[in-house]
Design a protein that fits this description.
The chain has 239 residues and is α+β, with helices and mostly antiparallel strands. It has an 8-stranded mixed β-sheet with strand order 1-2-3-4-5-6-8-7, with helices on both faces. The longest helix has 34 residues.
Length: 239
């Protein structure tokens, strides 16, 4: 089924081998099978497991994950890099990449994690800035998104420092290992020049107001009922 629009990004821009991206003291390099042991060590960390919702139980699983990342590049649907120091490329500091990549729309979702002993040094922020610049300027993507649990305040700070503005909260977007559905904070970064709101197409005001009322009113009523029940329960408890 043909598209009615031209792809925002020409797929030929990602032809060939995945590049290593050198940016001063940091380098984003391709994963290799020899990284499997360090990757397993990363996923032994409770925080990485908590926010990435997966674990690695064997070297084979780690090698399979690396192969999956490489396949994502070949299919132009995802990509991941190991974050290393340019002077010591064998030691992994973290991971940064595009969890999803849509060339037709010119959109990608950024992800990252940092090894336990390397946190608090600004590595995640710098790596995210490097990747963002490559994605927007070299590849020509139009929009980068970054989503994290509202409880992951550290990730929120990284996103803001890397130039990703907060757009809002996606309600109960992802189920976590604690069994609950987490609201997720949505950030974005747009390739300049950024269109001002007045220049973007918008639905007619009447339709917009109707849509908002249909969306908000049921939740407001539900919230009111919940607060009323809580108030009655509190009075009952006080006698």
């Amino acid at each position: 089924m043909p598209y009615l629009i031209e792809p925002a990004v020409n797929p030929t821009r990602l032809n060939g081998s995945q590049p290593d991206i050198v940016a001063g003291e940091l380098t984003l390099r391709r994963w290799v099978p020899e990284d499997a042991e360090q990757l397993m060590s990363a996923y032994d960390d409770p925080e990485i497991r908590r926010w990435n919702l997966r674990r690695l139980d064997s070297r084979r699983e780690a090698e399979t994950l690396i192969a999956t990342w490489k396949q994502g590049w070949r299919r132009q649907t995802a990509v991941s890099w190991a974050v290393v120091r340019t002077s010591n490329p064998d030691k992994i500091l973290g991971q940064v990449g595009c969890r999803s990549l849509f060339l037709v729309d010119g959109v990608a979702e950024i992800s990252y994690w940092i090894m336990p002993g390397q946190r608090g040094r600004g590595i995640a922020t710098r790596a995210t800035k490097v990747l963002s610049q490559w994605a927007l300027e070299t590849v020509g993507l139009h929009r980068l998104e970054l989503v994290h649990s509202v409880f992951n305040t550290g990730s929120c700070q990284v996103a803001i420092k890397a130039g990703f503005e907060i757009e809002g909260v996606k309600r109960e977007l992802q189920r976590h290992a604690d069994g609950s559905w987490h609201d997720m904070c949505l950030h974005s970064r747009i390739r300049p020049p950024y269109s001002p709101p007045s220049a973007r197409p918008r639905p007619p005001r009447r339709q917009l107001v109707t849509r908002l009322r249909q969306s908000v009113r049921p939740r407001a009523l539900a919230a009111g009922r919940s607060l009323g029940e809580q108030g009655r329960a509190t009075k009952a408890a006080r006698g």
